[in-house]
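Worked example
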Amino acid sequence: MSFHDQADACQCNKGGGELPLELAALLATLKIPNALLFVGNPDLGKAEAALAFARALNCQQAGKGNGLACGRCRSCKKMLSSMHPDIICVAPVKAKIKISQIREIYGRIKAKPHEAAFRMVLIQGAETMNPEASNALLKILEEPPERTFFILTAERTDGLLPTILSRCRQVTFSPMDQGRIQRILVSDHGLDSTLAGVAASWSQGSLQKALRFAGIVDSDDGTDWPGRRRWLITAISALISGASPGSALLLAERINQDPDLIGGTLAIIESFFRDMVVFKYNPGQIVNSDFHALIGETAPGISAQRTLSWITELHHAEKKIKANAGIRLTLEAFLFKLIPARQLA
């Protein structure tokens, strides 16, 4: 992977966010381990925390010990633009980190840092290293260069060599409480409390997911997920309420135009079905609370049993698509099951 590719790997993760208490404590003492391992589910801000940690360590303004970077000094600006020569980022290529990438790291860290007080090497998806890459990294960790620390991020530890684990100080990233995410969205980002609640419900404990869902930060793939959710829920409700069979064909075709988004698309549809069931028993607990009125109009005429059967059929459709069945034809068959029988007569 070239240097520019590695800079791009950092670019998508340049956002800030709160640092875990363990990292804040390290900043206060400036006793930085040679290697840290951040472990947790995707989208919990592991890479963001690593870059925020490096910024705070190298911030040229006063008050570094409080765990915050100023964001305005020369060092902070370079890191925020992914142009700092002493921040080296590596990410999997085709789902693997190869030995050539680790060798390039070694070539770049043999000399002293260019300008940073603490040079950071960030290895994202460290569990994807092949055996050769793992052994090459182990040799570097055994004799770490001057003023250089490593941060490895991983979803789990079972893919890493025990000898690498033994040389890393582990920091676990856990999902955030939905209420806390909602409060952050309202207080720090000025979001309406209703939309913040919807985003928090969708977040699965990830502030980053909530920010993307609310449209506060761009999705990695550029998708307007708030707009897509509104479109899908409105379209599915129309089908259930008696739209023409042609509408089902058009919806399937439009979804088929973005096959890479199928996972999130089906999740949105499922959330609407689940809300229809929940609404009958506890309307205040639906996830898509900004669609309260629409769900209230749609749900009463559909039995919970029928709605649950749609969820089962949706899961069957998802399995077929994962088994390489055609998306459009699979969705057409599923969507026709949502149309009232009178419309098909």
